[in-house]
Specification:
This protein has a domain of about 80 residues. The protein contains 3 helices and no strands.
Length: about 110
Amino acid sequence: MTARTPRNAQGELQGAIASVQSLSNIFAPLAMTQTFHYFTSANAPAYFPGAAFALASVFCAISLIPLVHGLKIAPKIEAQPADPAGEAVPQEAAEAGMKPGDAAPQTA
C-alpha cells in the first residue's frame, strides 16, 4: 500500500492502518472468546473448539476483497501526479536526506 500512496500521504495511510488495528484489537477478543464459549458449551449445535479460528479465517478472506479491489484501481507511485507545489523536495535536498520544511544548508 505504501508503494501506491504518495509521499505526502504516507502519514494518513499509517494512521488508517493503526486505526483499523486498534479496532480489531478491541473487538476480536470479544468475538473470538464468545465464539469459543458458544461452540464448547453444552448447548452448542456441535462441539467445535476451533470455531474461533474458522471465524478468524473467514474474516481474513473477507478482508482480501477490498485489498484486491484497491490494488487494482490504485495506480502505482510512478503513475501518480507530482507532489503539490510547496511539498516537493528538490533533487539536491532529497539526495542530502532533507524533507520539505527543513532549513536550507548554510554555506560560508
